[in-house]
Amino acid sequence: MQARLIIAGLVVLAFMGLGLVAYHYKLAARDAEADTVQAKAETRQTKADLKVAEDVNAANQATIGRLQAQAASDAKLTAQLAEQIAASNQAFIDTNAAVAALKDANADVSHFLAQPVPADLRKLYDPAAGAAGGR
Question: How much is the pTM?
Fold first, then answer.
């Protein structure tokens, strides 16, 4: 009788052991499934983040292209303005040289240029000098 109780106890212990092992594997399977779901969610999030990063990069590239085009246009306009200023300066130098040569060559021109500038005309070109009473 006692041997039967021991055997029955051992059988019960064996089934309990098998039950614990099965329960352990069930928990491990549930954790693995949860990890799989989490990994898939992270993968989706990573793909979404990658798509956003690619979109931002494309927008940045477009902006850089526009800025480079604007810089090239600005450089072209600056070069054209520099040419116009140089041409204006040269025309001014040429005109001053022609007036000086004419002043030296023609007494009437020399006499005309020696006349004082009228106060009203001086106010147009130099408001500070006109307000101070003129020179």
Answer: 0.49
